[in-house]
Amino acid sequence: MNFGPRTKMHWLMKKEFYSMKANQDETISRVWSNKNETFFITPIITSHVGLDTSLYGWLLPPNPMVFSVFRNPFERLLSSFHYGIRLGANRPGQVRMCNTRGIQHTAKWQERVADARKLATTSNNSTVYQAMLREYLDKCSDAVYNAYTAFLDPLTKNLTVAMNHLEKHVVVGLQHDINGTLQRWRNITLDACNEHPDYSKMKKVLTNTSESHGEKKFRASPIVKDSVVLSSPDISQFDQDLQDIIRACTEEDEVIYKRATEIYEEQSRWGL
To answer: Which of 48, 111, 262, 266 has its CA at a distance of 20 to 30 angstroms from the CA of residue 101?
Structure first.
């Protein structure tokens, strides 16, 4: 999920930021001074910014359209682990990033995870896979601990507030119905913007996007390793203590996901 805006980083800030990453293994949390900070208003797929409603009416429109796709929280956690997601959710300029030696190089991390998944798939031995998952959950808890709560309420990370934001602000999509989700969102956007002066251009772009989105995948972890189709162990195959950790990481998100699936059905007539 990405609800923008997010910080524009000057090249000098980037130089200092990556110098910080190279010289320490602790979680990076940096807030740039307001006088030096500027923002992108629109979100991009590589940034992680929570739904900060305090930005409504100044950095964001008073009543913006917020689109977000949800998936099964356990599947989402494993997907983040497989890919090596290191960014949590917070306000612009306060997004936290885990910076462990094992995870900071995404391609290398994915290769290690793919090897562990291959072993679990071919030999029914998930020991290495579980060890890596433990490492990830320990070092990158900001990226996975009740992520839906954190994204929907980056200020206090409170389930009640997150549920309220979900109900009030979000046009819901579901990962397992991504084609239906994107078609619905296209229709909603065009319906809401039909008086926009550039409506014809918007319609053309969105139509072209909707026709080709099935061929695009912006980022994904490997699903095949040495001709072996990789599977993911079921949570019941994990050690009990690891199961408990995972359930703690997804307990609130399960509540949010259940409500999100209901809202998705409630919004089924939108944009028709």
So the answer is: 48
Query: Rounded to whole angstroms, how far apart are CA atoms 133 and 80?
Result: 10
Q: How many CA atoms lie within 13 A of 90 on its CB side?
A: 16
Q: How far is Cα 227 from Cα 205, in angstroms, rounded to an integer?
A: 37
pLDDT in tens, 139-193: 888 889 999 999 999 999 999 999 999 999 999 999 999 999 999 999 999 998 8
Helix axes 240-266, 159-169, angle to 10 degrees: 30
Residue 37 has pLDDT above 80, yes or no: no
Query: pLDDT band at residue 68, thresholds of 50, 70 and 90?
Result: very high
116 backbone dihedrals φ, ψ, rounded to 5°? -65, -40
- C-alpha–C-alpha distance, residues 100 and 86, integer Å: 9
| The predicted structure's pLDDT at residue 87 | 81
Q: How far apart are CA 131 and CA 109, in angstroms?
A: 13
Residue 137 CB-half CA count within 13 A: 23
Residue 205 has which token pair?
């772009």
Distance between CA atoms of 222 and 31, rounded to whole angstroms? 34
Q: Which amino acid is at 174?
A: L
Look at the chain and count its residues. 272
Strands 170-174 and 224-225, how do they pair?
unpaired
Strands 38-40 and 6-8: antiparallel
How far, in Å, CA of 203 to CA of 197, rounded? 12
For the stretch 245-272, pLDDT in tens is: 999 999 999 999 999 999 999 999 886 6
Pairing of strands 170-174, 66-70: parallel
The amino acid occupying position 241 is D
For residue 177, the 8-state DSSP code is G
The Cα 41–Cα 58 span in angstroms is 11
With beta carbons less than 8 A apart as the criterion, state whether 43 and 55 touch. no
